[in-house]
Amino acid sequence: MSQIAGQAPPAAAPRKRRRLGVSVVLCLAVLIPIVISAVFGSAIAPHDPALQDPTLGALAPNGTYWLGTDDLGRDIFSRLIAGAYTAVAGPLLVALGTTLTGTVIGLLAAYRGGWFDTVAMRGVDLMYALPAMLVLIIAVGVLGGGYYVAVVLLIFLTVPTNIRLVRSAALSQKEMAYVESARVMGLSPARIIGVHILPNVSPTVVTNFLLDFVGALVGLSGLSFLGLGVPAGTADWGLMLAENRAIMDLNPMAIVAPAALITLTATAATVLADAAYKRISQAGAQRD
Amino acid sequence: MSILAFIGRRLAAMVVLLALLSLLCFGLLGLSPGSPEQLLLGTRPSTPELRATIRAEFHLDEPFLMQYWHWLTDAVRFDFGVSAHTQQEVTAIIGERFHVTALLAVYGLVVALLVAIPAGLYAGVKQGKPGDQVITFGALLAISAPAFALSVLLLYVFGVALNWFPVFGAGEGLAENIYHLTLPAIALAAGSAALMIRQLRASVLDVTNQDFMTFARARGLSPARIWTVYLLRNSCLPMLTISGLVLAGSLAGAVIIEQSFGLAGLGSQLITSVQQLDIPVVQALALLTGATVIIVNLLVDLAYIVIDPRVRHPRSAA
User: Fold this and answer.
1) Which of A225, A271, B60, B251 lies most in the core, judged by the most C-beta atoms within 10 Å?
2) How many CB pairs under 8 A join A and B?
3) What is the rounded average pLDDT of the residues A15-35?
4) DSSP string, B93-132
5) A241 in Cβ contact with A229 (< 8 Å)
6) Residues of chain A contacting residue B27, judged by C-beta atoms under 8 Å apart
7) How far apart are the first and last CA of chain A?
8) Measured distance CA(A111)–CA(A198) in Å, rounded
9) Are B296 and B304 in contact (CB under 8 A)?
């Protein structure tokens, strides 16, 4: 039984690795143009994304306006390119902030244990009990501040997941012989955590980063969709989706394209997270 | 750890959570921009008499904790005061709209279970086959697609382009409600169905590799018996947890869905009240939703003890 199970992987492994490659390439093919659009924005858009031409009205896709126009005559394609900024910048900030804080607290909680661990984990339990999207809607709606207040709030709301995942990954590392020998050699806790444990929990950290990005993208564009995120008039995928609902019979692309872009970006980052986890843990396993 | 100690600890944690939640909800009044007095005045003309009445009614001249205490003692009796915007009783507003959200949540859960249980079991049993890959990829898309994007797409395809379903409102009467809520329920169910499929697929894989499955097959038990008694029972247990959480989470998820489909439920009310800074309504909705989530979480954990004997006797299982 175990022999059969042991023989199966080598035959399946190369095929699996090749399939992994294809999905990663596809994800990058989705994500790289979006990041480029976020960086260059309206500079690479065929039309001015904010230019209104009420005489046009909501046009269906045509030669001049590839994805048509909205009811104010603004070019949908250009607005999608300009909208990449809020779809990437905020989620990136959230992912960076969350992964950084979550990793540090998670590692410390696992390594030090004791009161720090207890306090951190009780805090995490507490945050877990609150429905994040609801907190976001109420807090941003009542306090005001829109997009960037939401970015800060999202970091707070996402950190608990990161702490929990990093902590449990680090806990299993802590029991390993190499940590014990590092301690016996008299290395400082900072060095053991930073140089020895951190690389071994890096698959979790990288995955967290990408999944935090996805969560923040969905959260922030959802807020904008509800009219609580970016200011009215901003080119933002979530807001476009809300604004163009009224013209979906005239120009369906005005809602299909932003919906598809948000979904594609989220899916691509999720798949990438999965692939990155496997790739990094494999690389680590081979090095051993 | 005995079961009673476990339950006791969970109950204590729940009380602490509820206290904190209520403090947060009450704190909304103080945290909002503008003075509490002005907020509670809403759209009414500002007269000294009315201001004095509001100060007295909400105990605004007393210290914060006393205000909180007054608010909380009213809140536990489901008295949340009147809306600052319409002067309607908050409880009446909630009562009018509760059934749409409740129906949507239950409908969404039913749709999710109906899709996820066969799909998840199939994917688990046929692991690696094309059917599994299609289901797994579908689940990935459904989990990544935000509810609002999915809502608008469903509206366009089935509401506008194919014209199968209405695009606005919840309709009158139960039959019409169900018809009108079909697209919203699908939009609500997509994410949770995807979660369930992943969970089921994983637990089927897990169960199939257990020794007792090998023994059951070796003992020559019929495939039907293996399926129902061994596979289904063991892999469907987590569905209970997920169902509870999905139902509680629907209250939060309904916000976006109701807003997308123009349904007059609690979620769309929350958005309206948040935009109008109608604090008494926001407080009530936040407290009720948060409390529901916390209580359902506890009930799910307790139900697990009742259903899964291994949780009850952790030592003997290990």
Assistant:
1) A225
2) 124
3) 79
4) HHHHHHHHHHHHHHHHHHHHHHHHHHHHHHHHHTTTSHHH
5) no
6) none
7) 27
8) 11
9) no
Architecture label for domain A22-41+66-287: Orthogonal Bundle (1.10)
Nearest-angstrom CA–CA distance, A147 and A133: 14
Find out if CATH 3.40.250.10 is the number for domain B94-275: no
Cβ distance A133 to B252 less than 8 Å, yes or no, reads yes
Shortest Cα distance, chain A CAs vs residue B17, angstroms: 7
Does the pLDDT of residue A120 top 80, yes or no? yes
List the single residue in A242, A266, A271 with the smallest CB-CB distance to B146: A266
> What is the percent of chain A where pLDDT is above 90?
41
pLDDT top residue among A215 and B61: A215
Give percent helix, percent strand, percent coil of chain A, each to the nearest 5: 80, 0, 20
Q: What mean pLDDT comes out for the span B200-214? A: 84
Q: Between chains, do B282 and A262 touch, taking CB under 8 Å as contact?
A: no
Cα of B35 to nearest chain A Cα, Å: 13
Q: How far apart are CA B135 and CA B123, in angstroms?
A: 7
CA distance B155 to A131: 26
> pLDDT of A231-280, one tens digit each?
888 889 999 999 888 888 888 888 999 999 999 999 999 999 988 888 88
Of A141, A255, A271, the CB nearest to B156: A255
Backbone angles phi, psi at A86, to 5 degrees: -70, -20
Identity of the residue in A138, A259, A271 whose CB atom sits nearest the CB atom of B274: A138
Contacts of B145 in chain A (CB under 8 A): 259, 262-263, 266-267
CA distance A9 to A14: 9
Quote the pTM value: 0.86
Measured CA to CA in angstroms, residue B305 lies from A227, B291, B294, B300, B311 at distances of 43, 22, 18, 9, 6
3-state SS record for chain A: CHHHHHHHHHHHHHHHHHHHHHHHHHHHHHHHHHHHHHHHHHHHCCCCCCCCCCCCCCCCCCCCCCCCECCCCCEHHHHHHHHHHHHHHHHHHHHHHHHHHHHHHHHHHHHHCHHHHHHHHHHHHHHHCCCHHHHHHHHHHHHCCHHHHHHHHHHHHHHHHHHHHHHHHHHHHHCCHHHHHHHHCCCCHHHHHHHHHHHHCHHHHHHHHHHHHHHHHHHHHHHHHCCCCCCCCCCCHHHHHHHHHHHCCCCCHHHHHHHHHHHHHHHHHHHHHHHHHHHHHHHHHHHC
What are the residue ranges spanned by the domains of chain A? 22-41+66-287
Every domain of chain B with CATH number 1.10.3720.10 lies at 94-275
Q: Three-state DSSP class for B225?
A: helix
Tokens 């916390």 correspond to: B294
What was the ipTM of the complex prediction?
0.83
Q: Chain B: give the shortest CA distance to residue A259, in Å.
A: 5
Q: Which residue has the higher pLDDT, B49 or B112?
A: B112
